[in-house]
Structures are given as C-alpha cells and as structure tokens.
Amino acid sequence: MKRLLVLLPLLAILVLGTACSEEDPSVRVRNDLDVKVNVQLKPDAGSTININDVEGGTATALSNIQEGWWTATASVQSSNAEPESRFEAKNDVNYTVVIRNTAPPTMEIQSEDK
Question: Label partner for 101 (CA 20 to 30 A): which of 2, 6, 16, 66?
C-alpha cells in the first residue's frame, strides 16, 4: 500500500508532463500548378528557409519551423507571378503553403492541429 501511495504521485506527474508537452510547428508546400515553384519562408526573426523545385501536383514533406510570424513568397516557373502570404506559426500545428492553380497563381495557408 505504501508503494502505491509513493508511485501514484509520480505517475500523475509523468502523465501531466506528457500531456502538456508542445511540438514545434511544421510546414510543407503543396503545388497545385503544372509547373515548378520555389517557395521562400522568411520569419520575422531568424533564418530564411527555401523550398525549391516543388514539382507541379506534388507536396513536400513536413519540416519543423519556429513559432512566430512568417512571410511565404513563391516564384512560379515561366511566370512573373510571385504570390505572397503571411501567417503566424503556433506550436502543435501543421501548416501547408498551397500554390493555387488560378490565373494568376495565388497562395493560401492551410493549418491543421498535429
């Protein structure tokens, strides 16, 4: 009985610690066009991330990013269009930068909980 009384608080701390942990935000690029795109992700503070040569009709794998405000800019092969969007990355969320097949191409940021 004494062991149970000692183990119960330790188990509670372990469960609470696991439940409260946060995962870094993640981002990927989905290209709905028929041509390649290059996407630049620039945070308000920190290093820029370039995701280049995303083939038409494909999506990249998720990559972890830091929390905060980001500006995404795309350059579209064989086009002067440079769609841009701004979003706030928060922990425990996956973001998808979608290059939409419109004339001219547009950008949309989609999010989903991890």
Answer: 66
Contact 29, 39 (CB under 8 A): yes
Q: What DSSP letter does each residue of 5-69 carry, written as one string? A: HHHHHHHHHHHHHHHT--PPPEEEEEE-SSS-EEEEEEESSS--EEEEEE-TTEEPPPEE--SEE
Do 33 and 101 meet the contact criterion of CB atoms below 8 Å apart?
yes
Looking at the DSSP assignment, which residues form a beta bridge with residue 97?
Answer: 29, 109
Residue range 44-102, pLDDT digits in tens = 999 999 999 999 999 999 999 999 999 999 999 999 999 999 999 999 999 999 999 99
One DSSP character per residue, 55-107 reads: -TTEEPPPEE--SEEEEEEEEETT-----EEEEEE-TTEEEEEEEE-SSS-EE
Residue 18 has which token pair? Answer: 């696991």
Cis-peptide into 25, omega within 30 deg: no
For residue 109, the 8-state DSSP code is E
